[in-house]
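dumping this here before i forget
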Amino acid sequence: MRSGIHPDYGPVVFRDRAAGFAFLTRSTLAARTDVPTVEWEDGNVYPVFDVEISSASHPFYTGQLRIVDSAGRVERFRRRYERREGR
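structure:
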């Protein structure tokens, strides 16, 4: 890689406040200095970013996904817009 053109890549904590879930990973967001920090389980301090949704709160991963009755919608559409024999 060429030096001087890539952003810094370092450890950050992403926190889902709705689910009370946080995880430590690496990101280019670590280069920002205007963010709050948090002390992680290993005793080190990392920048923290709050996210609205994560695997801990997303309906697909939590099993709370709603199934939509698409067959009923299709039948209603066909009944409404089917061609009449007399036309």
